């Protein structure tokens, strides 16, 4: 969780405050979705 927050803070430097506030949530959702898709693919093969 700390890594996502730190990455969001670094990546969102030039964004408006509202977008910066959502960036950690977006990054976490994206990575969880990638992980779920990977695990689903591994299970099906």
Describe this structure in words.
- This protein has 45 residues and is mainly α.
- The chain has one domain.
- The chain contains two helices and no strands.
- It has helices at 2-11, 17-44.
Question: Could you list some keywords that capture this structure?
Answer:
45 residues, mainly alpha, 2 helices, 0% strand, elongated
Structural class by secondary-structure content = mainly alpha
Low-confidence stretches: none
Average of the residue pLDDT scores: 87
Number of helices: 2
Helix content: over 70%
The biggest sheet amounts to: none
Principal-axes shape call: elongated
The total number of structural domains is 1
Gyration radius, in Å: 13 Å
Helix and strand topology:
Blueprint lengths: L1 H10 L5 H28 L1
Helix pairs in contact: 1-2
Give a concise summary.
With 45 residues, the chain is an all-alpha fold.
